[in-house]
Amino acid sequence: MNALCKTLCGFWNSSIGKKLIVAVTGIMLVGFLIAHMVGNLLIFQGRSSLNDYAEFLHHFLHGWGIWLFRGGLILAFVLHILATVSLTMQNRAARTEKYAHEETSKASVSSRYMIWSGLTVIAFVIFHLLHFTVRIDPELASMKDPMDPSRHDAYGMVLAGFQNPVVVLFYIIAISFLCSHLSHGIASIFQTLGLRTEKTRDPIQKLGLTITIVLWLGFLSIPFLALFDVIGDGDTPPKAAPVTVEASSH
Ligand code: HEM
Q: Which end of the chain is more exposed for a tag (fewer CB within 10 A), N or C?
């Protein structure tokens, strides 16, 4: 046990160990984003597709699946932030004024603002969880699928949740920051894993940019089209007139 603790502490205390943690947790988080975006796009197939998917997520492995998944996601998110903050502090303490100036002038805009885009993403995730997972708005929490009132209406909730232009604007800003964070972060993962060479630099840059643009368009298409009523089957009650069924249990 002592030896394991020593190894883990040694790994955490080394700069390469922390960079590896940032890279591996970064891969997990990008994987989550791709899966989440693909799942969300089911909204374009209609109410039953999105609600079936949401029901599957909540009942997978008798309800344990989502909690296992949440545990992994929280661990990855927390480790990603702690290792990044620790690396930034370590670098600040180590570098000289001259080095700092050279680095800043060479760095791209998104890499210089990594910490700020990262903080915006944290604020967004907290808001988003309160919005759609905890559902602090009782109107959104009480929505039931008109075809199957025994289950929550994720479809109606998303459409109603994006009727407010201020909320949509916040999603646009936050997801744009998230994508700016990813445009630099994805290439950095390859660098840390030693896969970025002269030959692979360009394809990696293009891959990072493609993933970022697909995520940006995929995520933002939903609030944008919902706000302008382009999505919807006309069966979703407007947010001002909620369906009053008993509160959701999730
Ligand atoms: C505008 C695009 C998005 C839509 C429409 C959307 C929709 C949703 C919905 C409906 C849920 C609740 C699922 C359920 O409990 O049935 C959810 C959960 C979640 N979303 Fe999003 N989301 C979007 C963007 C994002 C982004 C960009 C992130 C990350 C930065 C994110 C992170 C999460 C997380 C962490 C959860 C909680 C998953 C869980 O239940 O454990 N979402 N989202």
A: N
